[in-house]
Amino acid sequence: MSGAPFLLASLDATHDRTAFRSDSEPLNRYLREQVTQDIRRRVAACFVALADGQRIAGYYTLASASLLLANLPASTGKRLPRYPTVPAVRMGRLAVDQAFKGQGLGGALLADALYRTARSEIAAFALMVDAKDEAAAAFYQHHGFMALPDSSLTLFLPQATVQRSENSPFQAV
Ligand SMILES: CC(C)(COP(=O)(O)OP(=O)(O)OC[C@H]1O[C@@H](n2cnc3c(N)ncnc32)[C@H](O)[C@@H]1OP(=O)(O)O)[C@@H](O)C(=O)NCCC(=O)NCCS
């Protein structure tokens, strides 16, 4: 990550969500109009990278999820117990403001999500994502995620394959 350091915080009412502009209008709208309801109902947690201590430069959401064992590649499934599902954490959304694209922020937010998943006391076999299109899927594949054999836009990264990081790439607020 280059340039000034970003701070990482849980989204709260003091953050201005209206100025955020990524390349994806649905992801901008989600941040403006939907995310606070999802947080209140505890169906998503949202983390924001802040530039200059206050401007939202990027965000992602996390929630509990599960993966059907039968949907995993055979090479992954055969190393797991024969439960119908395995626990996972879903990164539901990830977006970076156009002003901060291409500076490593998206990759750093992904690393922070992996760090958060790894350090949780609640077990999760993998971090999973539902990519919105093939370009987004390519971004995740670039970072080591594998697509489910029957669903190219659902990708996962087993925790065991991630090099354990003791620290988030961000400074917390
Ligand atoms: C996808 C997105 C989050 C990437 O953020 P970013 O800050 O520009 O990405 P980074 O600068 O961290 O890129 C990290 C690496 O990923 C690579 N990368 C970026 N986009 C990529 C893509 N679509 N396909 C493959 N690789 C990609 C970069 O080349 C870089 O590689 P390097 O580390 O080897 O140099 C951002 O472009 C975005 O918000 N897009 C709109 C919303 C979206 O598509 N979200 C995806 C989730 S559905």
What features would you highlight for this structure?
alpha+beta; binds coenzyme A; 173 residues; eight-stranded mixed β-sheet
Beta-strand residue fraction: 25-35%
Query: Given the helix and strand composition, which structural class is it?
Result: alpha+beta
Strand order of the largest sheet: 6-7-5-4-3-2-1-8
What is the alpha-carbon Rg in Å? 16 Å
Amino- and carboxy-terminal Cα gap: 18 Å
Number of helical runs? 4
Q: How many DSSP E strands?
A: 8
Unreliable spans: none
Q: Which whole number gives the mean pLDDT?
A: 94
Which percent bin holds the helix content? 25-40%
Bound small-molecule species = coenzyme A
Please state the overall shape, judged from the principal axes of the Cα atoms.
Answer: globular
